[in-house]
Amino acid sequence: MNKYENNNLQKPEYLFHGSSKLLKILEQRQAHDLNNNPDNEDFAVFLTSSFIVATAYAFQDKIKELSEELNCQFEMGYDADNDKIFIKMDNVNIDDNIEGFIYVVPFNENYEHHGRSIQYKCHENIKPIDVIKVKLSDYKNYYAINNSTKSK
Known about the structure:
alpha+beta; four-stranded antiparallel sheet; 3 helices; 12 strands
């Protein structure tokens, strides 16, 4: 696990995809961005060089379900100038028992990548080399969680 968590963000050996679903193949999907950022809108498999950022994506759908009556907001990314990842969750209900999955794929220089971003896009389906089950309670200390309540 340490080799994944300590993956170099700018020169990665691995890329990660987080999902609440157990999958055999990572299939391309149409992504939409609330801020209309064209880098985040594409028919692709979206990947990140950060294992920690991938964990947030693994939990996001279930947190949104728990927070449907709230105006929940998520912000995840990388501050390249300060070499720091950031994960913010506002107005959310959380449950420490939420589980998700991290899919590991080897780095491929042919994946679409822009500048110093930690986001990559693949325009074909991918078979992961590893799948790791993760639990929110093990990773929530990496996130800034504001205005939250703990659910059962």
